[in-house]
Amino acid sequence: MYVCSCFGVTEDQVREHAAAGACTPRQIASACKAGTDCGSCVRRIQGILGRGTCPRRAALERGEPALTAEAAQPAAPQEAAPQEPAPTPPAPRPVTLPVPSVARAAA
């Protein structure tokens, strides 16, 4: 059954996003846009999310970290090969502007 008629999102799709870790209507909206147009489906999404358990919330309630150690750690930076310094640009050349010739009026 459709939950969001604006974007054609079904109950099953909301449950799939919840199983993937979306615990709030805002997270569902980020995943599939449901609830971002007219907003009439937000209460229905809240009801669907309330029926099951959020994997992250359940982990926190059991005293486990919400993220795995691998996901929480930033990737180690890779060493870059030494680079040669950029070449120095040539010095600017002086510019000579033409002097306008002004005809002197006869006095």
From TrEMBL:
Q: Which GO terms describe its molecular function?
A: 2 iron, 2 sulfur cluster binding; metal ion binding
Q: Where is this region: Disordered?
A: 64-107
Sorted alphabetically, which InterPro entries does this protein's record hold?
BFD-associated_ferredoxin, BFD-like_2Fe2S-bd_dom, BFD-like_2Fe2S-bd_dom_sf
A Pfam family annotated for this chain is: Fer2_BFD
For bias type Low complexity, the affected ranges are: 65-83
Tell me the superkingdom of the source.
Answer: Bacteria
Q: Which UniProt keywords apply?
A: 2Fe-2S, Electron transport, Iron, Iron-sulfur, Metal-binding, Transport
Where does the record locate the signal sequence feature? Answer: none
**Pro residues composition bias: residue spans:** 84-97
Tell me its family.
Answer: Belongs to the Bfd family.
Protein's recorded name: Bacterioferritin-associated ferredoxin
Q: Which organism is it from?
A: Streptomyces albus
